[in-house]
Amino acid sequence: MTESVKPRRLTPKGLATRNRIIDAATALIARHGVAGTGIEDVRSAAEVSGSQLYHYFESKQALIRAVITRQADSALGPRIEALDSFEALRAWADAAIERQLENDGRGDCSLGSLAGELSTSDEDSRTDLANGFLRWKDLILNGLRAMRDRGELREDAELDELAFALLSALQGGVLLSQTMRHVQPLEASLNAALAYIRSFATSGEGSRPVG
């Protein structure tokens, strides 16, 4: 995934300024959405001049693509080192649910919310978003592959399908939970996806509970 940034090495001070601009844009988008966030709003929130902002980002689109990259790098939201066991998958799901509880079901600047605004109107951003989702899916897929290699999942398990099912459960559950201001849809979707993955466990693993 690429960002529309001038190709040069940044000094520590320059990197800090650039990160402050991205932080400000991310916070504003969480509250007002992409359409409701203007360059001047970001400039004011980041406490930089117009020339400073355009020194790092040549346009609003370039800044938005940097935000997309930042959110994709957050590695599935709650950071889990490896999703390579039923316990790790459960812990990741619980962390995602806890995040929604902390937000009181309100929106944030996630890949899902960005996709809702940009996927049909900005092809460059749509491509970046799709690549971000695929990176997240691959994290799940790599963990599932390790589980199958250890004999915890059956050989006939379609790992790509399972990875997409869990990622879709996260994204769809977050959308419903934020719309309904209740965490139950996210809990239900993640529990169902984990149960589906558990159904492919080998005999020893399959007897353990999902939650």
Structure in a nutshell:
The chain has 211 residues and is mainly α. The protein contains ten helices and no strands. The two termini are 35 Å apart.
Task: Detail the topology: elements first, then pairings.
Blueprint: H1 12-32, H2 39-46, H3 50-56, H4 60-73, H5 86-102, H6 111-118, H7 123-149, H8 159-180, H9 184-198, H10 203-206
Molecular structure report:
32% of the residues are buried. Helices cover 68% and strands 0% of the residues. It is mainly alpha-helical and 211 residues long. Helix 4 (60-73) packs parallel to helix 7 (123-149) and helix 6 (111-118) packs antiparallel against helix 7. The protein has helices at residues 12-32, 39-46, 50-56, 60-73, 86-102, 111-118, 123-149, 159-180, 184-198, 203-206.
